[in-house]
Every structure is written in structure tokens, then in C-alpha cells.
Amino acid sequence: MKMEDMSLSGLDNTKLEALAHDVYSDLVEDACLGLCFEVHRAVKQGYFFLDETDQESMKDFEIVDQPGVDIFGQVYNQWKNKECVCPNCSRSIAASRFAPHLEKCLGMGRNSSRIANRRIASSNNTSKSESDQEDNDDINDNDWSYGSEKKAKKRKSEKNPNSPRRSKSLKHKNGELSSNVNPDLYKYNYSSGISYETLGPEDLRSILTTQCGVVSEHTKKMCTRSQRCPQHTDEQRRAVRVFLLGPSASMLPDSETMLENDGYDAPDGQLIMSRLQWDGSSDISPSDSASSKASTNNSESKRPKKKKNPSTLTLTTTGGGGERDKGQERERVVGSGSGSSSSQNALGLSSRKKRPKLPVPPGPSIYDDLN
Amino acid sequence: MSFKMQSSENMVYSPCFCGEGKRCAERPATNNSRETNISRESQMRAAINQKLIEMGERERLKELLRAKLIECGWRDQLKALCKEVIKEKGIENVTVEDLVAGVTPKGRALVPDSVKKELLQRIRAFLAQHST
């Protein structure tokens, strides 16, 4: 029988609806039957009740809701109040503190050696002169002769002045430093610097021979780190010395500079460049600190906290204004007075922000004849 | 398939087979045509079913219904009912007929309305499309 024989007119809406309902009920019944067959098979095969546990086991694993106990019934801070006896010092230690105590008690483990070193270092600082820092960790890393020279660099290792060991051992000395300079010269103190205004020239000189001394723009205090502190350049140090002690007094020792002298832009550029060379350019000739080549390479680079870079930075005190030609020979200039123009930069450049290159002032150049 | 028969009373007043007993537009001319209509209707049903199967629509509808029932949790409800029947009758002795008889009527009732409506809609659409 073809569908064409059955026209829609033969069926009204209700009939159609009934038909649809019939089809629907058929489908639902099919679904029910399918489920029943499945269940029946599962029952007969024995896997219908597999996902259920018997009552006994259910009771065993019931959720526990008592105070002081977790849902499995375990006590979680069982060992908190227990105390153990240390085999080394025979003290009774709390269980959770036992392991760290043992570490320190036996002298093994990372922390204990660190603490011991710190103690040694601090005792060295307080009792001995700087040249006796035999126990310093990085004693072998430097080529410096930490002899008895007054101008010898302070042989503090170039550790982070912000490290906890510093503050921990020397906190109690903070308050004394600002006014009483001399006995505290060898004490590390990063949290309060030295204010140069209150110091006499002798004090200043002694400070400046041992410490970095660069005056921070923010706090107007002198940097108390060593002469090789990575935060400030030799140029800055030189400038500070010039500023504080007069133009002829800037004698920084150990100007081991290997600058490649390609001329320099300005005193500001000098300081920038010398700072930038600290960043790690390895071809710095032992001459004037200015090197425009370095500056062009690194002019916008920031200064990382590199600790030891003996091949870089010049510590000369030379410079004055004036330009240098590129390709100038390497020279080692020691201790001549820097131009007056550099003194004005001493304070300004002690901060570490980036500075654009400034134009060269055509000031009096000592080295005009050298060009 | 159920088939509502007009009562003899209604035959006088509304001789059509719409099943509602009221006067409707369609009136067979004679009593004889009612039987023809009945048979025509049953033929119609058969034809429609056949068409459903042939076009695969029935399978699709079946799958759709199955998916929807699982989604709405109907299947799990019915399984729980089955469990009860089984516990009643005992595992060893339960038969398919027991299960069917115990579960199917409730199963029909438990189908959610949304599922029912959607299915009916699809069936109607199919009928509308293919019944001419």
C-alpha cells in the first residue's frame, strides 16, 4: 500500500497526534525492554550486584565524624606532643623540631656550615683587621694582595649586603655607625650608611680608602660596601673622592683597567661607560675608563650584580672633560686629578638608573696633547 | 496498537473516528466507511512504521531516546526498581517477565516531560514530512 493512498485529509490532527503517540510509546517500551533484558542478563551472569559492598565492609569504611580525628579515623597530630631525646646533646626535643636540631647539633647539613661561616666572618670583622680574613670563602678567587696597605681593598667578599647573615650578625651595631666612624669602619652595615657631612677629612679619607663611599642620591649616604662593590663604578668612587677630599686627593688603588679606549663622550659618559664595562665586557684596556665603544654596545644595559670581574672596571681617576679619539692607545693613568666637571656628577650618578648620553662639554682636557 | 472505538452512541452524533466523541469536520458518509477508515488507519500506521524503519528514522529516534533517558537518570531509577524486584523475587528465580511486568509501567511514567515532548516533536515532523 503506498503512502499516496493515505492522504492527509484522511487523517486529521488528532489522528496524527495519536499516531505520533503510538510511535512514541513503542519507542519507550523498547527502551524499557532493553533495560530489562540487560538487567536480567547481569543478574543471571552474576555481575549485577558487583558494585555494591556488603554491609560489613560498609561499616568498616564508614566516614568517621569524631573530633580530633580525621574522616578515616586517624589522629593527625599524633606526634606533635611527643618528645625525642637527642643522642648528641641528650636534650629532649620536640618531634617536629628534631630534625633541624640534629642538623645543627651534629654540625652537618647546609645550614650549620653557613651559620658557622657567618660566625667566623663576623668574629673576624670585629676582632681582626681586614687583612687577616684567612677564613673567607673566596680567598682564593681574587688576585688582590690584601696586604697591609692602607689603601688595600677591603677584603670583604663581595657578598650580597642584603643577605640575612649580614643583618643577623651585625644588627646590633647599626646604631653606632653613623656618628662614630673609626671603630666601625670594618663593620658591615647596609641598613644605615655613613653621612659624609658629619665626618671630618681624616675620617673621610680613612673611609674612602677602605669603602666604596659613593654617595647615594636617595639617602645622601655613603656606600659602605667594599671598594669593589658592583653597585657603583670606579668612576663614581673617584668622583666622590674628588668631591669630598678635593681634586688632588683621589687616589684609588689597583687600577687594573683594560679599557679599550675608543674615546669617550663625557664625564657622564665616562661614569656610565665605566659602569657599563663592569657589566662584563672583557676587552677593557688599562687606560682611561672612558670607552665609547663600550658605551655604544652597552649604553642601555642595566648593571647586573656581578661579583667578581677583575678584568673589567677601571679604577683610574683620570678624565676630565674633553673628547677622546677612537683608537687611542691603552694607557694607564693613575691618580691624576679629574676635571672639575666630573665632580658635579659624583652625586648624580651614584644611583643606578639609566642615564642617557650627555653631550660632551668642551672643558679643559688634560689629555688634549695625547689625542 | 491500541485503537479507540467509538461507542455506538457516538456513532449517531459524530460518526468520525477522531476518538473524542464530538462533532468533527470529517464525517464518513456511511457507517461502512468507518470500518474502511479503521482499516485504512491501521494500514496507515503500518505504512508509517514501515517508512520509519526504512528511512532509518526509527533507529535514530531510538538512539536519541536512549541517550536522553540515560542523561536524565531515568535508566538508573529503573535499575533501582529492578533491584527491588530482584530482591523481592530472589536472584535465582527472577525472570524477564517479572522484570518487565514490574518495571515497564513505572518506566513509562517516569519519562520526563521534556524528553517526551522532544520525541513527539520529531515524530510529528517526520509524519508531516513523509505522510503525503
UniProtKB/TrEMBL annotation, chain A:
Keywords assigned by UniProt, alphabetized: Activator, Chromatin regulator, Metal-binding, Nucleus, Transcription, Transcription regulation, Zinc, Zinc-finger
Bias (Acidic residues): 132-141
Chief location of this protein within or outside the cell: nucleus
Zinc finger (SGF11-type): 84-105
Signal peptide, first to last residue: none
GO biological process, one term: chromatin organization
A GO MF label: transcription coactivator activity
Location of the region described as Disordered in the Swiss-Prot/TrEMBL record: 116-182, 279-371
Subcellular location: Nucleus
InterPro entries: SAGA_su_Sgf11, SCA7_dom, SGF11
Membership in a protein family: Belongs to the SGF11 family.
HAMAP family: Sgf11 (MF_03047)
Domain characteristics, as noted in the entry: The long N-terminal helix forms part of the 'assembly lobe' of the SAGA deubiquitination module.
Function: Component of the transcription regulatory histone acetylation (HAT) complex SAGA, a multiprotein complex that activates transcription by remodeling chromatin and mediating histone acetylation and deubiquitination. Within the SAGA complex, participates in a subcomplex that specifically deubiquitinates histone H2B. The SAGA complex is recruited to specific gene promoters by activators, where it is required for transcription.
Protein name: Ataxin-7-like protein 3
Source organism (scientific name): Cyprinus carpio
Gene: ATXN7L3
UniProtKB/TrEMBL annotation, chain B:
Keywords: Activator, Chromatin regulator, mRNA transport, Nucleus, Protein transport, Transcription, Transcription regulation, Translocation, Transport
Coiled coil feature spans: none
Localization: Nucleus, Nucleoplasm
GO molecular function: transcription coactivator activity
InterPro entries (UniProt xref): TF_ENY2
A Pfam cross-reference name: EnY2
Superkingdom of the organism of origin: Eukaryota
GO annotation, cellular component aspect: DUBm complex; nuclear pore; nucleoplasm; SAGA complex; transcription export complex 2
Alphabetical GO biological process terms: chromatin organization; mRNA export from nucleus; protein transport; transcription elongation by RNA polymerase II
Family membership: Belongs to the ENY2 family.
Described purpose of this protein according to its UniProt entry: Involved in mRNA export coupled transcription activation by association with both the TREX-2 and the SAGA complexes. The transcription regulatory histone acetylation (HAT) complex SAGA is a multiprotein complex that activates transcription by remodeling chromatin and mediating histone acetylation and deubiquitination. Within the SAGA complex, participates in a subcomplex that specifically deubiquitinates histones. The SAGA complex is recruited to specific gene promoters by activators, where it is required for transcription. Involved in mRNA export coupled transcription activation by association with both the TREX-2 and the SAGA complexes. The transcription regulatory histone acetylation (HAT) complex SAGA is a multiprotein complex that activates transcription by remodeling chromatin and mediating histone acetylation and deubiquitination. Within the SAGA complex, participates to a subcomplex that specifically deubiquitinates histones. The SAGA complex is recruited to specific gene promoters by activators, where it is required for transcription.
Record's subunit section: Component of the nuclear pore complex (NPC)-associated TREX-2 complex (transcription and export complex 2). Component of the SAGA transcription coactivator-HAT complex. Within the SAGA complex, participates in a subcomplex of SAGA called the DUB module (deubiquitination module).
Protein name from the UniProt record: Transcription and mRNA export factor ENY2
